Amino acid sequence: MIRTAFRTRLPALLPLLLGAAHAQLSAPATVARTAGVYPAAAAPGETAWIFGLSGVPAEGKLNVGGQTTEYRLDRPSGWLAFQVPQAAAGGPQTLTLRGAPQTLRLNVLTVPPGTDALVYVRPDAAKTVQAEYTRRLQALTETCAKSCPAEVQSVLRRLSAQPSPALTPLTAPVKGQGVTPGLAARAAVTPAVRAPLINLNTLKATNLTQLLNPVARPPAAPADSICSALAGTVPTAGLPLGQVLTLLELIFAGDLQTDPTWSGHPTQSDAPYRDEKPITVLQKVLQVRPASGKGTTIHILDTATATGDSFVMDGDINYYNQLYGNRPYHGRAVGEIAQAVAPGAQLNYRQVCEKDGSCSTLKTVQALCAVAADARRGGRHVVNLSVGGPNPTRGLELALREVTALGVPVAASYGNRDDCASLVAGDRCNHYPADWTRSFEFGPAVNLASRSLRPTMLFSVAGWDIATRDMATYNRGVGNPGVLTEAPSVQAPGEFWLGGYPYFGTSFAAPVVSGILANWMSCQPGVPLLPLITTPGQAPIAASVVNACP
């Protein structure tokens, strides 16, 4: 799964900071200061600040998730500065400090050093962004000179010295994918015109604190498709990535959104039934009858292309006390499992991760936009994402909204235990896109076994151990007491042998669900309700769903 910064549409999704709406700013105004966090995201070791607090000691300790760190008052700004702990868990973490509201959140960026910033720009704002990029940064630098922490001033000066990013349509073809421009290219040529939420003149009269404390919610903006956006890369050049992401969103409110360029990596853990074919195993544990999935396409967004998979999991894997070295493939194995469940379905491999296991935010969004274009042309489609990460990348969520709104369900791996390694009680162990499963629910609730459930278009798939017939110990959060996790939406077998190697983990449970979805869609309307069944010994997916087609 990708280790990975939304919902509804592009312009409506620019929180200036966690929980704060962006503002229509006209002139400086006197408003009640609301406590918040700057920047919205920061990597371990970087400095972050809490602003708008009063009545707390000038120095002390606070918690980032379950990790403790010290804070001190930055007197020029009045903000409380703290260093993100090196052991902080990735993704959104709660900040706790006596006297502070309980709503403070920081997105901890667990990304490789040197990760750059990815920007998405509304087509009608592209000229403005490129023409005013430097001037807006310089304007904020000037207003920040006396009221901002010195480190923030330095970041603004260095960022404003860079040229504006080159922008290209997000759906331009990417090597290894064959992305179809479709509607996005046409949208880029004939953009809608709208008034900006912020402009250069109002920015010159506004300081950073005012930007972080919006005076009003903006009026509703016209709906946009993420696939119509233009994209570009801003080199961080040693700058703190979280500040770069936050500052660019603030000065181009509503017109520009950001993500790290790195979104994660494939997730794997380490099956009984040695060397048996996946379909044989599934027939034994789920009573799967031969089905076809005919007329459905399963899109595998992973490490594989249509011709091969160069990914190798380096090092020895200890599986049932036997070592297996340098196991090949990830996406190819995922595709073979999906095909075993739905042999009549067409597989479409879209490479979004490199042979070293790093996954590209941009390629993933582009691949989802290509799926959306395919869905608009007709047919039935399923997406498999056996990738994920701790950071909630906004481009990924917007693109998932795009495809699911077209009736395309998505199976995403829940994440494995190693995602939570070294975390302590109070840390939240995140894994996106799987952790968005609840926000993709739809329709009326269904009462099932005294529970009220709603179907979802984004299935968070945990692994079910085919030996113990219970939730697998390799699942995220299992064996990590006190670590907080979102529950999965469904379990599926995730242990198989392919080519003499064991493949196990939530990555390989997800394609079981992808295949079941393909089979269902070949003869049934909509998507099935797949509740989370955790009764030991009971099959995790009902036979009526597994064998829904004749």
UniProtKB/TrEMBL annotation:
InterPro entries, sorted: Peptidase_S8/S53_dom, Peptidase_S8/S53_dom_sf, Peptidase_S8_Ser-AS, Peptidase_S8_subtilisin-like
Residues at the catalytic site: D302, H330, S507
> For this chain's UniProt record, which GO biological process terms are given?
proteolysis
Tell me which domain of life the UniProt entry assigns to the organism this sequence originates from.
Bacteria
Instruction: Establish whether keyword Ribosomal protein is in the entry.
Output: no
Q: What residue range is the signal peptide?
A: 1-23
Entry keyword set: Hydrolase, Protease, Serine protease, Signal
Locate the Peptidase S8/S53 domain: which residues? 338-525
- Which Gene3D superfamilies does this entry report, sorted A to Z? Peptidase S8/S53 domain
This entry's Gene Ontology molecular function terms read:
serine-type endopeptidase activity
Q: Which family does it belong to?
A: Belongs to the peptidase S8 family.
Protein name per UniProt: Peptidase S8/S53 domain-containing protein
Species of the source: Deinococcus grandis
